[in-house]
Amino acid sequence: MSLNINSKIASCGGKLLKCTHDSVATKTAMNVNVYVPKQFYTAAKTSQKIPTLYFLSGLTCTPDNASEKAFWQLQADIYGFAVVFPDTSPRGDNVPGDPENSWDFGKGAGFYVNATTGKYKENYNMYDYVHSELPQLLQKNKDIFEDKIDFLENVSIAGHSMGGFGALSGFLKNLNKYKSCSAFAPIVNPSVVPWGTKAFGGYLGETSKSKWDEYDPCTLLKNTENPDNKYKIMIHVGTADPFLEKQLKPQNIVAAAKGTTWENAIDLNIVDGFDHSYYFISSFVPAHAEFHAKHLGLI
Ligand SMILES: N[C@@H](CCC(=O)N[C@@H](CS)C(=O)NCC(=O)O)C(=O)O
Fold first, then answer.
1. EC number(s) on record (predicted)?
2. Which of 61, 67, 283 has the most ligand 1 atoms within 8 A of CB, as the residue to mutate?
3. 3-state secondary structure the chain
């Protein structure tokens, strides 16, 4: 399938490509933004391709929120990685949303899982979309990216809130795929918090707890070996985040890691005074960029 570029916007030293394409996983058109860093335009073509960071956004977001407010572009230019900003759900008149029309389920809230229930399973396959279909599609579009960007192998993943959950879950389920994972104010234990139980109940079924375990980072940690303690996960969350106690519960992932091969792998930073917004995210994007750059072999 082909990628249609709707606009190409100069940003920092590179270009932000706002794209649309048809998706097999969601059976809808999907929007995605791709930041192509300055190295793409300035460096000579070598065998060393530009690596990619996938950034998964949170509830209510489109690809534009992080593109406009996280300031990844400045960091991408410093180290030389591309950034892919996927959408958070399928969209369109034929896609079912939240029956109560709220913002924490349905459109804008796909939760990066493959739905198995009733009317949602047709379109809400964001797990397959983000971790498989989208990277392959980007890699195939050699006319646009000239085979200079590696969207498949030298890649890392990060996310915010629901997207922080999506990054942790996708990373732990695909340890051979991603070089590193980081999260901003992630929902670390969706099976026990209101946003997560609503999403898992709706997309996976109220009684299908074994399916919930397949996605919950706190369970995945216990069932996934961290070979030679190779992988580290960086997390930041603010003390003034209104969702901290009820929805995020970051201490749960540290507790889950205790006694496992992940025990010393979770770098949880509770940062004083920061909230849940992009003011918080953009403040710590430089630290996360440096973390990923190291794991992608850029420094
Ligand atoms: N007040 C927010 C609640 C949801 C929220 O805070 N969403 C976070 C992710 S969980 C976000 O990134 N919102 C969009 C933004 O700040 O640009 C809304 O209704 O949009």
1. 3.1.2.12
2. 61
3. CCCEEEEEEEECCEEEEEEEEECCCCCCEEEEEEEECHHHHHCCCCCCCECEEEEECCCCCCHHHHHHHCCHHHHHHHHCCEEEEECCCCCCCCCCCCCCCCCCCECCECCCCECCCHHHCCCCEHHHHHHHHHHHHHHHCHHHHCCCECCCCCEEEEEECHHHHHHHHHHHHCCCCEEEEEEECCCCCHHHCHHHHHHHHHHHCCCCHHHHHCCCHHHHHHHCCCHHHCCCEEEEEECCCCCHHHHHCCHHHHHHHCCCCCCCCEEEEEECCCCCCHHHHHHHHHHHHHHHHHHCCCC
Higher pLDDT residue, 47 or 62? 62
pLDDT score, position 1: 74
Ligand 1: centre distance to CA 278 (Å): 9
What integer pLDDT is reported at residue 25 of this predicted model?
98
Mean pLDDT along residues 230-252? 98
Is there an atom of ligand 1 within 6 Å of 61 CB? yes
State in Å: Cα 42 to ligand 1 middle.
36
- Verify whether residue 210 is a known catalytic residue: no
pLDDT on residue 45: 65
160 classed as catalytic: no
Q: Given ligand 1 and candidates 33, 59, 68, which is best to mutate, with the most ligand atoms within 8 Å of its CB?
A: 59
pLDDT digits (tens, 9 = 90+) for 137-179: 999 999 999 999 999 999 999 999 999 999 999 999 999 999 9
**Per-residue pLDDT tens digits for 78-117:** 999 999 999 999 999 999 999 999 999 999 999 999 999 9
Q: Determine whether the shortest distance from the Cβ of 237 to ligand 1 is under 6 A.
A: no
